[in-house]
Amino acid sequence: MSDVRTGHVILGVNVLVLGYLPAAWQSDLLHKGSFVDADYWNTIGRVAERATLDAVFLADAPALGNPSYDANAGRLEPTVNWSHVAAATERVGLIATASTTLNDPFDLAQRLLSLDYLSGGRAGWNIVTTRDASAARNFGLPEIPARDDRYDRAAEFVDLVLALWESARTGEEVRHHGEFFDLEGRLRVPPSKQGHPVLLQAGGSPKGRALAGRRAEGVFAAELTKEGAITHYREVKRYAADAGRSPDSVKILPGLLLSLGSTEEEARRRSDELHDLGPASYSVQWLSQAIGYDVSRLDLDAKFPEEVLAAIVDPASSGGSIGFRQSIYEQIRRTDPTVREYLRQTRYTGSGHSGFVGTPEQLVDHIEDWYRSGAVDGFNLQPDVLIDGLEVIADEVVPLLRKRGLFRHEYTTDTLRGHFRAASA
Amino acid sequence: MGDSTTTETSAYLAIGLGGDHLAALIADPRQASPLDGTGAAFVAAGIDRIDGSAPDGVTVEPTVAAAFLAAHAPGTAFLAAAAPHRDHPYNLARRVASLDHLSGGRSGLILGVRDGYAPGDTAWGGAGLTEGAPLGVGTTRDVAVAVQKLWQSWPQESIVADRESRIFARAEQIVHVDHRGVFDVAGPLTVPSTAQGSPVLAWYADSVPEVAAAGEVADLVVLADADPILLGQAVAALDAAPSSRFAADGRRPLLFVQVAVTRGRAADVVARAGSVAARPGVDGILLRPDAGVGVAEIVGEIVPRLAALGAVRASEGPTLRDRLALPEPARLLAGARPVFPAPEPQSAPQPAL
């Protein structure tokens, strides 16, 4: 942990379609079809590139959430979406989330390597295992397999994808006979300029972190506190070392929910207005889904009951990502809020992912503090509304980071793996 | 069209590109823009995948290749070639609908029964989730139906984006597809219907049973070759097929016939293509250069000569359906199960809690 840390931060933008808040579609800068519009997506790619960001990132699940009040429920398929953006950009990395549970490894390996080829070596794959039962039913499965089984499958899936990417380079057939997959064949996609797409991992469970340490080059983590982030940072780097890899070869990039303003007050007002424009039940629903407990049944003015807190971190109970649940649990323990207080806090501090509401200058302080403390290698920024939020990142945040020597002035590398490596130089 | 309301006598033109062509166009995308000047109704991307031939030396997955090329050739429509081999209908429907949104309604899907680049002998069995299904006409037909239902599951008209009530979508109009067949798919899709309603659905067929199945479920059939007996049977099969694709207005799917283009035989190709285009029941021809013939040769030599002969017509219109004068497909989901309740108008903004 040192002030002698060299290199620079890695910055991605998690493009949660129009922005992370459900009311993002109500921006005057957008029209009702923006979420699937060719020009909208080109603009996102181009502004990210103007900011010399390392990558744009798309989360994904193959199922439709309720779009009644939220355009972000509508989701273009990430590999196709980024192939479109690849034609409008030259340097920015393009990270697509794809499930190891609901894909065929041959098809996905071929598609990701195709994206890598047509983008000149800018593709990344964010590996997820999918928890959502409605997604399973789109694939004829009554249920999603249990968490441990999903991670066992994910481990074999990733190894097979890597072998197939290798086959595109060598021309030699893969002969794979494993617990989940049997395959003899090879890919005929032209070789990638960066060797193969960059692997990222998003789960926060112990098996997820172990997979990250073994294979991933980036971890899209969920961290609410700097102390928790430092612990997890060391844990993943240790897994990498145990797997015979350099700790530098895996980059830790937590999500950071953002509302920015020219003063702290303006930023809070922007955040409040956007929250108030969203559906009234949004935060109650969000928390219910995340922790697998119907929060509307709780007394909003009482503290969280002990049994609810215990269930949040019990891996056996249902609910969302373990990484999210762990970080929610830690935040509640730390501040001991009533339910109402907690839901209000999450407006400014995030829930699951860490949140930040303030000025570009304060944000840069925050990034520098976490980076220099050895809690992160960078952040995956999640603006409240992309169409103007990303402009502020490009025009204000990034120049401040550059002034402090924390970020590149221009691209010196042209592949995503090249960008990641340049950060630890 | 099956009826004869059109006064046009010349045929639609299409171009089929294999893996080598896709890789070359992607490596130098400036070569893609001249496709815009051909007047072709569409380019079928990755057709070598589904035509039963040996795979080209290299390939690029067709849906992502088409998304990239459609951005570089903004006047060209693309069909992405695919088979339900290692691809699932939900993933496939989603990628093609995404492509259609991003290309402004210039896209579609051309299905075959197997993918020449894919290992294994089952449909979706390689995903390790099920035993998989046999590859064949029945499986492809089932996928065609499932995909079309998914494309209709979220009607674009449901999107109101009303700032007054703060309702983005009348979500009660979104339905499950509850498809039961070779594949079981609950739906809905993650994207709404597109600028042209649904992407165009085509089928690459090389036998009469395939044409007959395609006749029931596709907008358009590409017949592998112009053998007169096969062609006659194909026309008869299409005329007889009970199409679910069109409302009962006497239409049948468009019939395109593939014309192979080999190196150095331009005069031959032009003569052959011209004669195929003039056959009764043929709505269009699809030029299929082999790997030794470059896109530049098709665009610069063959197409202008065919046009000069008056054998093919230039297709115009913002969407692929406009170019082919195809109607929106018949509604497949009447009475389907809604996914979400009707949203309540939100009152004036107030502190949430």
Automatic annotation (TrEMBL), chain A:
Keyword Nucleotide-binding: no
Domain of life (superkingdom): Bacteria
InterPro entries: Diverse_substr_monoxygenases, Luciferase-like_dom, Luciferase-like_sf, NTA_MOA
Secretion signal span: none
The keyword Ribonucleoprotein appears for this protein: no
Residues covered by the Luciferase-like domain: 36-375
Keywords: Flavoprotein, FMN, Monooxygenase, Oxidoreductase
Any one GO MF annotation of this record: monooxygenase activity
Similarity annotation: Belongs to the NtaA/SnaA/DszA monooxygenase family.
Name of the protein: Nitrilotriacetate monooxygenase component A
Organism of derivation: Microbispora siamensis
Automatic annotation (TrEMBL), chain B:
Transmembrane segments: none
Gene3D superfamilies to which the protein is assigned, alphabetical: Luciferase-like domain
Keyword Methyltransferase appears in the UniProt entry: no
Residue ranges occupied by any Luciferase-like domain in the UniProt entry: 58-266
InterPro entries in alphabetical order: Diverse_substr_monoxygenases (IPR051260), Luciferase-like_dom (IPR011251), Luciferase-like_sf (IPR036661)
Keyword vocabulary terms for this entry: Flavoprotein, FMN, Monooxygenase, Oxidoreductase
The name this protein goes by in its record: Luciferase-like domain-containing protein
Annotated organism of origin: Microbispora siamensis
